[in-house]
């Protein structure tokens, strides 16, 4: 996320967080804040901030907050980090702010949860969100859940977001009057495998509103997909289709229940209509499977290619390919591998004077959930060693180690260029990185020829033995256009 975009997203949040002031907790040290040294540090921080030294001001305020146990200083540090476009530092300050106020003070908890979710770190938001709900009234809890529901649409990883929502929402009673919340809760239950909770919640929603189109379709599709109670599934989806005849997703569900009942020709006709009206990866997965079963494998593969261009991380499409076309599958795998080669980087800046680049060698090793990327200069000397595990990354350079939550942010902040590190081992296999939207294109041999993900455009070159020979990676960024060319001496041995 660019700094300008981050500022825009959080400007309103910062104003809301600062409104009304923050009271001192019982363990605060107000006398310390009255000392000449403390006043000098505050003034010096504000002057540094005016001069553009936001990092110095942030560090001073956060250190003082911890020293004097004063939440107002942590809140100020958070405001500075938000204005500077530093989400990780803002989170650090928000966590300190929350730790310094009484448990009943909900404002820092609300800010912390919002920061985590807007940074797409739903799993880390679970614990503070539950702590927030514990000190809220039922009306406040409902409002919090509705705010979380609204933020689900902004997530790049639907499964992670819905999983977190289920864990959070399960700690309170969802008002039965709110069908939208019930429907979202049911979807989240399905994502964590609690189909019993999903079915119970959807049936509760339908008791309150028998014409709830979303609940009718979701319950009917769930039954059809599991090949259960097909007559009831058909009745539920047919009613949803009558209420919303132009909805392509409901038509997809109707086709799927017809397919489950052996009406292949009718299902094919309905799926083709649904896909032509609304090309989506879910519908492509179903259409391809019906074609596959009807012995039209070439047409099925073409539809699946189109589906991968639309959303290669779609769960329905991934499951279908894993089952019917395993050599195409982009399902998550725990793997080991090693790649060794050379790289050349060219950055075309926003002005002619900003052009820069470089070259060298690299080695990437993957051992299950850990990636280790070593970058060398042209004569073989070490530039940096980057270790990436789920939820954390570290960069070792000149004997110093820097850590961060995100590998790409770590590389950009340390080396000064937005180079790819997160998910690189997946990309070198011709697979997409789990957890964000992606597009995949294939050549006539079924090999991956192009991937678009995380802002990067990847173009592949394979040899006759189906080994990766070269990879070109390009993207636009706030520093200009980046072009990276990789040539492999040892591709995944």
What features would you describe in this structure?
The chain has 493 residues and is α+β, with helices and mostly antiparallel strands. The chain folds into three domains: 3-119, Tetratricopeptide repeat domain (Serine Threonine Protein Phosphatase 5, Tetratricopeptide repeat), CATH 1.25.40.10; 180-328, Serine Threonine Protein Phosphatase 5, Tetratricopeptide repeat; 335-490, Lipoprotein localisation LolA/LolB/LppX (outer membrane lipoprotein receptor (LolB), chain A, Clam), CATH 2.50.20.10. The protein contains 21 helices and eleven strands. The chain has an eleven-stranded antiparallel beta sheet. Helix 5 (71-83) runs antiparallel to helix 6, helix 14 runs antiparallel to helix 15 (248-260) and helix 17 (281-293) runs parallel beside helix 19. Mean pLDDT is 84; it is low at 1-33.
Give descriptors for this structure.
Serine Threonine Protein Phosphatase 5, Tetratricopeptide repeat; 493 residues; single chain; 3 domains; 21 helices; disordered N terminus; eleven-stranded antiparallel sheet; alpha+beta
